[in-house]
Amino acid sequence: MSETLIPFDDVLASYDPALGLEVHVELNTVTKMFCGCPTEFGAAPNTQVCPTCLGLPGAMPVVNGKAVESAIRIGLALNCEIAEWCRFARKNYFYPDMPKNFQTSQYDEPICFEGYMDVEVDGETFRVEIERAHMEEDTGKSTHIGGATGRIHGADYSLVDYNRAGIPLIEIVTKPIVGAGAKAPDVARAYVGQLRDLILALGVSDARMEQGSIRADVNLSLSPKGSGVLGTRTETKNVNSLRSVERAVRYEMSRHAAVLGAGESILQETRHWHEDTGVTTSGREKSDAEDYRYFPEPDLVPVAPSREWVEELRATLPENPTAKKTRLQAEYGFSDLEMRDVWAAGALPLIEATVAEGTAPQSARKWWLAELLRRANDAGVELADVGVTPAQVAAVQALVDAKTINDKLARQVFDGLLAGEGTPEEIIAARGLAMVSDDGPLIAAIDEALAAQPDIADKIRGGNQAAAGAIIGAVMKATRGQADAGRVRELILEKLS
């Protein structure tokens, strides 16, 4: 049954939205949070488990030191305070993918707290305040078999894979984001996108939203316009794309307004986001903290990072990705539109590495954003996984600059690189791609083309230099594209002037 919605502009006329975002980041540690099981994605179900992550009696957890380090680096990058002493807690609830019937998390003593991130939307800066970033473990994965929706309701039975249970997570929780008004959906999208870029720059996660290694829970409430009182919130769970974050906020704003406008109350609940239809549906009534019966984890010692270690980790932080984007755009001379496309394609690190090899920025952008992005899209892979390195792109462009090949021939070199045929020089030699550098064969091809098109020759003699294009085209065809078009033009004009 479809829900009643209020047009977005009408929502804003009567209500002020408040956002809250909880982003779960799956860390790329080699082993799980509290045991030595591997964390490799895509392994056969229930092959990466042990007594500890299965919650078997007598199994004792041990904290993953690398996960603690990653948590601190994330907190520092988000301008957070780092706790001098913190501990884990048991979050108790029963669910089939929780083998222990509790999740080891942090409650009132998170490792990172009181931070912020500034995001820009349409020239306006919004400060998103971070309440906490805490460590916890992921749950398993349930697959519901049968039924039409893929959810537990209506399914014939369910299968549980515990490989993911125990993988280290950092949950980053914002304070309520108020005052965004009509830009609330865009602020939510910009924040999650900027956070993902920061996580990638830190190197603590692959941050692949489509694989669930970064997931956003979207909290939303409406209050009567100007009241300043937060309304009852709903939490839309596991939104896994930037576009969906924006759409989920927009949908929930319209749905909340319709419920409130009908004189009814908002139920504090979790909601499921449906990517195909762009709607949310009811999940379960949302629990408050006391419902989870938190208490300190008795099997783990507190975590007390020294101030010296924290400062050592601070020194490892990379340049802020947003600041770096602004700096490189100015250095490379990219327009706003060019940088937007580069950023959206994830090409900036690749272009930066190619420029570091000696390639001009616009040449690097041309190959990565046109030729190689097309090939990545055709193969269904990320641009960084297309199979060509920045050093190889720089080598190809150096051969173009040296007039050994032209752009058309360079595309065939990329074919050879992807086929594993060797270095660019070896591919050129094996495929016979080198440009014709001797004027003799070019003059012979020009004479043949002029003889075949005497009317074009007369136009050129009459001063119509643009007509030389037809002769150049014929010469390029005769030489299989291996002539230097500029040199051919010079020879034509010399002959007919």
Automatic annotation (TrEMBL):
Record-level Gene Ontology MF annotations: asparaginyl-tRNA synthase (glutamine-hydrolyzing) activity; ATP binding; glutaminyl-tRNA synthase (glutamine-hydrolyzing) activity; transferase activity
Residues annotated as signal peptide: none
One record GO biological process: translation
Listed transmembrane segments: none
Pfam family, one: GatB_Yqey
SMART domains: GatB_Yqey
Catalytic activity annotation: L-aspartyl-tRNA(Asn) + L-glutamine + ATP + H2O = L-asparaginyl-tRNA(Asn) + L-glutamate + ADP + phosphate + 2 H(+); L-glutamyl-tRNA(Gln) + L-glutamine + ATP + H2O = L-glutaminyl-tRNA(Gln) + L-glutamate + ADP + phosphate + H(+)
NCBIfam families (UniProt xref): gatB, PRK05477.1-2, PRK05477.1-3, PRK05477.1-4
Function description: Allows the formation of correctly charged Asn-tRNA(Asn) or Gln-tRNA(Gln) through the transamidation of misacylated Asp-tRNA(Asn) or Glu-tRNA(Gln) in organisms which lack either or both of asparaginyl-tRNA or glutaminyl-tRNA synthetases. The reaction takes place in the presence of glutamine and ATP through an activated phospho-Asp-tRNA(Asn) or phospho-Glu-tRNA(Gln).
Assembly behavior: Heterotrimer of A, B and C subunits.
The family this protein is said to belong to: Belongs to the GatB/GatE family. GatB subfamily.
Name the record gives this protein: Aspartyl/glutamyl-tRNA(Asn/Gln) amidotransferase subunit B
Organism expressing this protein natively: Nocardioides humilatus
Phylogenetic placement of the source organism: Bacteria, Bacillati, Actinomycetota, Actinomycetes, Propionibacteriales
